[in-house]
Specification:
The complex is a heterotrimer of chains A (about 400), B (about 230) and C (about 400). Chain A is an alpha+beta fold and about 400 residues long. Chain A has 15 helices and 12 strands. In chain A, helix 2 crosses helix 12 and helix 3 packs antiparallel against helix 8. Chain A is elongated, with a radius of gyration of 31 Å. Chain C has a 6-stranded mixed β-barrel with strand order 2-3-8-5-7-6. The chains are: A alpha+beta (about 400), B alpha/beta (about 230), C alpha+beta (about 400). The interface between A and C is large, with 64 and 63 residues.
């Protein structure tokens, strides 16, 4: 145990022998670690927002619908209202909320204009927990129940239709017999979404109202289920799949929206790659520093060996130096990253590229997301790779012959 | 005109917290073509005097003249110019640039002076031959003996015909045989080229070669005698 | 050859391992930069081309305000003659007139809302790739025939095939009822779900009759010979516009602001990452050169006693760094070019790419675009950064005193 203490003390003092060199290397490590974590936090924030927004804007974590519904999302592919088995399966603690909806393509016609939309009939109470609409109401009021006769439109759509809250519009859609079903609705509320194109795509009405309009009894188009964590839907999905039976198709969100799930996978991959790339850029300098340090101390190492220190201990000392350097750099780099992200917690305004962000499905405000897991990952990877990088000069140092080393000019 | 002239030169420098008097009102004149040895015990001031004479160090008070020009008031750039053209140095060790060959070490100074390629090549080979290093022109310092390295240093010092060559303990790292050969070289160059030599040393053997021997102690000149060279 | 040059070169190689490691850092970064920048530039160009090609085109002449309001009454009058005038005025044939309206399209079984576009069959293929993407049947050829081409997704949703008839219902320019029966002569597959699901094209004259356009249309699409010529053509076209008709020539950037912004955002984040890499390399060079200078303190002292000025010594250090930098530059360009060229031939992919690709109209394998810019930009910046890093070690020599320097052990 005494050896370890000596090794550590020697390593620490040797680190500071060449103050300038160590400090420059340290500065490089701090900058590298800061950049690692800062960038990751920004990207994670972006992807998290994207995911949350995407998931909130309808699919939920798991969806149940008619097997043909995805290809033909119309009134002809409906589910019966959930039976007891399904309700029991949905009534468990790992289901935060569930909601059944009617979803059909429709046309909304105002006095001046008409537009195609996706009309969604919801039960507002159940829906509020799952999707975004109730939170993002900008004008008017939300639906008060599944039989509410009102209509909720997005801001952009209201502008395109040149209408407003309180006015009437006609909604036309197709019923199961391929007849046109139409009905007048009063606009009772307007919502605004993070991603503006959503506002033109979706219109909301009461589920029962819609069912009556279409004459479909209590059938629904889909059932959306919200679990505890969007990253861990597998078990939930399997259970619901079993309970739903053959007549329904059950899908988790990452299969419903491949773009979003692709983003998540890519993000995780990106994090690791970015860490490794930065480390590699640093590693050249790190190995250089160690090699130089060893080179300058050849005689001293020879002396230590002559005095009886084992090669393994010499190796340990060099490795310890490297790890200490990296450790200090990691500490300050992490702190610096945390400090630099705090003022940005409120989000960075990127509305200057808002249309571009919309194309990618990102909102106007970029909120960095600093995760302990990412910081830990960076730290571990840097230390492990640093250990490996220091092996070469360390092994070399441990192989010196005492006599040669001492007499080296 | 004197090769070098000092008038009441004082130089005090700090060592740790204390003030050390390096030179305490030194006045001396060395005529052209002179061959002078400076002796003192360690710390006695010979190196400081050499540095001041060579424009490497500026006196705190007094005057220093080299080749008729006053150098203690020159700017750093002008001093460098003096050292490039008028003053040659030979140190105890580490005189040469290790990555350059003997010839390149000599040519380096000439290139800095602006001598055209063909001429500097010719002169460097000539001077190396004169100091007895024929055939060793393309060797690097690491592959030469101590004596050979010092000869290259001398060659470099005199190749541009400086007014004065200042040597600080040039034989300290050499064995006695090599040392005396080096001194003979100095004498020869002094006689053939008329170059003034001022050599700081505490080696008796070296002192024997001097025509003028100046002793210093505690920054003051205490003795200044002419003698017959050995 | 100059002794100074020889000296500088040999000084670099005093510590070969150190030089190789520093060069290694430069080469590593350079390879990454060449590769990544090549991918970026290639992707951006492709993204723009692929997004604009099917429908938007490079430029469009529209009634001012149509872009935002999309009202059928915001017309370009006498549009076919107008388009012909533009063709003559610009000397380009890639000019085509269009009209657009929203309509309900019904097959026997289904009804959907779609965007109907009236096109000039002989000119449309010159401004759009859609005609070339007709997979079944043929494109439109007769300016007045009651024919239509639709996307595969729409065909699937409507449950129709080639030759089937569709009923169109919408409202015309004067607010009157617009109706028509058309037969499907072609089905296109662009790979972009948005297009394939919600667009139908019909001949312009027939469109004008159906929607009571009275010879007017909504946009004239102009394609420039290549992306770089677009701004010039825009100015030329603007000059051809008749006075007092409130017509504007829109650049594609005005029509799809998201595209340019998405690229800019991506560029910004990329430059941040590249910047970090460059800084880390600069640290490496700084450390190396500083160590190299400090090791030679005594030697510099002696050289100064020979009459060299600190300025000249500083210049030597800069020269050494330049050689080091050129080594990194040359090797970096060579190896970076090699690696990138291999991928330029074989393509490059990573997990998550296919989903991204669909969203941004990119193929699912990336082929880096190796050209003079992508090959040189990164390595040159690294080179310049290395020189900047050398300023400090070189400048330090300014304060070097020969006497003190020579006392250094």
């Amino acid at each position: 145990m005494g050896t370890a203490a000596i090794v550590l003390r020697l390593a620490w003092r040797n680190l500071w022998r060449n103050f300038r060199r160590t400090t420059i290397m340290l500065a490089a490590v701090v900058v590298g670690v800061w950049a690692m974590i800062f960038m990751i936090a920004l990207m994670r924030g972006m992807v998290d927002d994207m995911l949350l927004d995407g998931i909130r804007s309808l699919p939920g974590h798991v969806q149940i619908h008619h097997p043909n519904f995805r290809d033909d999302p119309t009134v002809n592919n409906l589910l019966p209202s959930p039976d007891e088995d399904l309700i029991a399966a949905l009534d468990r603690p790992d289901v935060v909320a569930w909601s059944s909806r009617v979803r059909v393509p429709a046309v909304v016609m105002s006095e001046r204009s008409s537009r195609g939309v996706t009309l969604v009939g919801i039960d507002p109470a159940a829906e509020a927990a799952i999707s975004f609409v109730a939170d993002d109401m900008a004008e008017g009021r939300f639906l008060e129940g599944p039989e509410d006769p009102g209509l909720i439109l997005g801001r952009r759509l209201v502008e395109r239709l040149e209408t407003e809250v309180g006015k009437r519009v006609v909604v036309m859609t197709q019923d199961p017999d391929n007849e046109i079903a139409d009905r007048g609705f009063r606009i009772i509320g307007v919502y605004e979404a993070q991603v503006a194109s959503t506002e033109e795509a979706y219109a909301f009405a009461g589920r029962d109202t819609l069912q009556a309009m279409l004459g479909i009894g209590d059938q629904v188009s889909e059932i959306a289920v919200l679990g505890l964590d969007y990253r861990a839907v597998e078990r939930l999905y399997q259970r619901i799949d079993a309970a739903a039976g053959d007549r329904a198709e059950v899908l988790p969100w990452n299969e419903l929206d491949r773009y979003l799930s692709g983003m998540l996978g890519m993000m995780d991959g990106f994090v690791l790659v970015w860490i490794v790339v930065i480390f590699l850029a640093l590693s050249f300098g790190l190995v250089n520093t160690l090699v130089m340090a060893v080179f300058e101390r050849v005689r001293e190492i020879g002396l230590m060996m002559a005095l009886g220190m084992k090669p393994g201990v010499i190796l340990g000392q060099i490795v310890a130096e490297s790890l200490m350097l990296l450790g200090i750099g990691l500490f300050f780099g992490n702190v610096l990253a945390w400090v630099s992200i705090q003022p940005l917690k409120g989000g960075i305004d990127i509305s200057v590229v808002s249309d571009g962000m919309e194309m990618m499905g990102v909102g106007n405000v970029l909120t960095p997301s600093l995760r302990a897991g990412d910081m830990a990952l960076a730290t571990v990877v840097v230390l492990v790779l640093g250990f490996l990088a220091s092996l070469s000069p360390a092994v070399r140092a441990s192989r010196y012959h005492p006599v040669e080393a001492i007499t080296k000019a | 005109m004197h090769a070098v002239r000092c008038v009441n030169v004082r130089r005090v420098y700090k060592q740790g917290d204390e003030d050390v008097v390096g030179l305490d009102g030194v006045s001396l004149e060395v005529e052209e073509g002179g061959f002078v040895c400076l002796r003192s015990p360690s710390g006695g001031g010979k190196t400081t005097l050499l540095n001041v004479m060579g424009g490497l160090d500026r006196p705190d008070s007094g005057e220093v003249w080299v080749a008729g020009e006053r150098i203690d008031t020159l700017s750093k750039g002008q001093l460098a110019h003096m050292r490039l053209h008028q003053i040659g140095f030979v140190f105890q060790a580490y005189n040469l640039i290790p990555v350059l060959t003997a010839r390149e070490n000599v040519e380096f100074v000439m290139q800095v002076q602006g001598v055209p390629t063909a001429e500097r090549r010719k002169r460097s080979l000539e001077i190396l031959s004169e100091v007895g290093l024929d055939g060793l022109e393309d060797r690097r310092p690491a592959k030469m003996s101590g004596g050979q390295q010092q000869r290259v240093a001398v060659a470099r010092a005199i190749v541009s015909n400086p007014a004065i060559v200042l040597a600080d303990e040039p034989t300290a790292n050499l064995d006695s045989n090599t040392a005396s050969h080096l001194m003979e070289l100095f004498v020869e160059l002094n006689q053939h080229h008329g170059t003034t030599f001022v050599i700081a040393t505490h080696d008796q053997m070296v002192m024997g070669y001097a025509r003028r021997l100046i002793r210093m102690r505690d920054g003051k000149l205490v003795e200044d005698i002419e003698q017959e060279a050995a | 050859m100059s002794i100074t040059l020889r000296l500088a070169w040999r000084n670099i190689w005093r510590q070969p391992r150190r030089t190789w490691l520093t060069t290694g850092a430069m080469v590593f970064s350079n390879i990454l930069l060449v590769f990544l920048i090549s991918i970026q530039l290639g992707s951006y160009r492709m993204m723009i081309d692929n997004t604009l090609a099917p429908l938007t085109g490079h430029l469009q002449v529209q009634y001012e305000g149509y872009k935002d309001d999309q009202q059928i009454r915001q017309v370009v009058p006498a549009i076919r003659g107008f388009a012909a005038d533009i063709r003559r005025g610009l000397g380009l044939t890639s000019v085509a007139a269009r009209g657009a309206a929203f309509a309900l399209v019904s097959s026997e079984d289904r009804t959907y809302g779609v965007q109907v576009i009236g096109v000039e069959p002989e000119f449309e293929p010159l401004v759009s790739t859609l005609p070339g993407l007709v997979k079944e049947g043929r494109y439109l050829d007769d300016a007045a025939a009651p024919e239509v081409v639709i996307g595969t997704v729409l065909a699937g949703n409507l449950k129709v095939q080639l030759g089937d008839e569709l009923t169109l219902l919408g409202s015309g320019r004067d607010g009157s009822f617009a109706a028509a029966i058309v037969s499907i002569v072609g089905i296109f597959d662009s790979g972009m779900v948005a297009l394939d699901r919600s667009f139908a094209e019909m001949p312009l004259e027939f469109f004008q009759d159906t929607f009571a356009m009275e010879g007017a249309g909504h946009n004239v699409v102009i394609n420039a010979p290549d992306l770089f010529a677009v701004t010039t053509v825009q100015q030329q076209a603007q000059a051809l516009l008749p006075e007092a008709q409130d017509l504007i020539v829109y650049h594609w950037d005005d029509l799809l602001p998201g595209l340019q912004q998405a690229i800019q955002a991506d560029l910004a984040s990329a430059w941040f990452m590249y910047g970090v890499l460059v800084i880390l390399v600069a640290f490496s060079v700084l450390n190396t050169q500083l160590m190299s200078v400090l090791e030679r303190t005594r030697e510099f002292g002696i050289v100064m006693s020979l009459g060299l000025t600190p300025g000249r010594l500083g210049w030597l250090v800069i020269l050494e760094t330049t050689m080091l930098g050129l080594l990194g530059l040359g090797l970096g360009i060579f190896l970076g070019g090699l690696v990138t060229a291999w991928f330029a031939v074989n393509g490059f992919t990573y997990p998550g790419l296919d989903e991204m690709a669909v969203q941004f109209n990119l193929p699912d394998r990336i082929f880096p675009d190796l050209n003079a810019i992508s090959l040189l930009v990164g390595p040159v910046i690294v080179f310049v950064a290395s020189l900047v890093a050398a300023v400090y070690p070189a400048a330090r020599l300014h304060w070097l005193q020969p006497v003190q320097a020579m006392r250094v052990a």
